[in-house]
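Workshop exercise sheet. Pairs work together: one partner reads the sequence aloud, the other fills in the structure field after running the prediction. Swap roles for the next sheet.
Pair: D.N. / O.F.
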Amino acid sequence: MQLLTTLITYNNRAKIIGSILIVIGLCFFIYPTSLNIKIGFASILIGIFTMFMLTKKTITQKISTEQIEGNIDTIKNIIKTLQIKGNAIFLPKTDNLTEERILIPQSSNPVVEIPKIQNDSVFLKTKNGRNLGISIPPSGLKLINKIEKEEKFDTTEIKNLEEKLQIFVGMDLVKSLSLKQIKTGWKLEIEKPSFCPNDSILCAQYPCPICSAILTAITRSTNGSNHKLWIKDITYDGKKTTFHVHFLKRKTN
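Structure field:
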């Protein structure tokens, strides 16, 4: 109900503004000089654009955001129900895995045991029934696949990756982005993704689609080494989300 009310509000505002611009444009035709005709046509065209194009775009974006929130809430509830404590490990493609996956380990120490994961693996257990966590596609997998039609990441060394990642800034998905190597691994700073729950615990376990797409791009840049990207920790200062990530070189069990 709240979503419907919001959509109607945006829709009405756009229609009111658009109608006013059209009326103003028509008024210029009362005194049809060359300048007035040009201004009148321009005002009418902008009014029509406001009424139809902007309204449609706003509604689409709002619905998309609601869908993203719903999907992330579902994963959040699963993590809570299964009492999963570990942070996300982004797994590269392998012979048994045709697309990247996120492993969210049951334990907060992911180096102890990384199970072999296949396409149909979701709830992970040992032979004696002990829970190892869950394996699910990254929330930003579709997004990064679309972006890679414009910019390839798998042929880029990570030390040269920051420049290519600026495509996310150019597409207005984030305000700024930086990837720097530090003594304990790599630091990824992302400012203002267009959608983010700003939940540091959830972001460390199952990042939002935009952050997830960026982390998947980093994983692809190391695909030849079969490295696994582990989110060690995450901080949020009200403006920037900072991921401290490590590459796990340990072979899959």
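Discussion prompt: The chain is about 45% helix and 20% strand. What would you look at next?
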